[in-house]
Amino acid sequence: MKKSWKLTALFLVWGLAAGMVSPVQTAVNGRLRLAVHSPLLASLISFFTGTLLLILSTLLIERRLSFSRRVITDSPWWLWVGGPLGVIFVTANILLLPLLGAELTVVSVLCGQMLIALIIDHFGWFGVRLHKINRQRLAGIALMILGILLIQHF
């Protein structure tokens, strides 16, 4: 199904807004780390409050918290690693922020996201639609790495 350019633009704006949340989350969690004197405890608090919001939102919108047990037995193993990957992501941001600053933390993480996204798209991992690596995509990644180097040195 082909999406209209307006719908695509709306989704891109939504993605841009979601991306803007990440540096704010990193800065807030970095400050939380100082308040509780622990990066792991700060990450735990972040996930706990997020979980509370998700429970409330799910109950209000979907009016349920259950799902079929077959999802557990019939799904691939990798379907269950999102939570632990989120812990790695959030905790790494908390640890990197005081070492690199907000800007360099965000761009280095973003570059890592782009590199793995390029690979996921190229091979169609996790059921995503194939988007083969090409020179233009590689140039985009190279420009991101150049951007990180410029930010780091200036």
TrEMBL record:
The answer, when asked if NAD is one of the entry's keywords, is no
List UniProt keywords, sorted A-Z: Membrane, Transmembrane, Transmembrane helix
Indicate the segments annotated as coiled coil, or none if absent. Answer: none
Q: Which InterPro entries match?
A: YdcZ
Q: Where are the transmembrane segments?
A: 36-56, 77-100, 106-126, 138-153
According to UniProt, the name of this protein is: Transporter family-2 protein
Organism, per UniProt?
Sporolactobacillus spathodeae
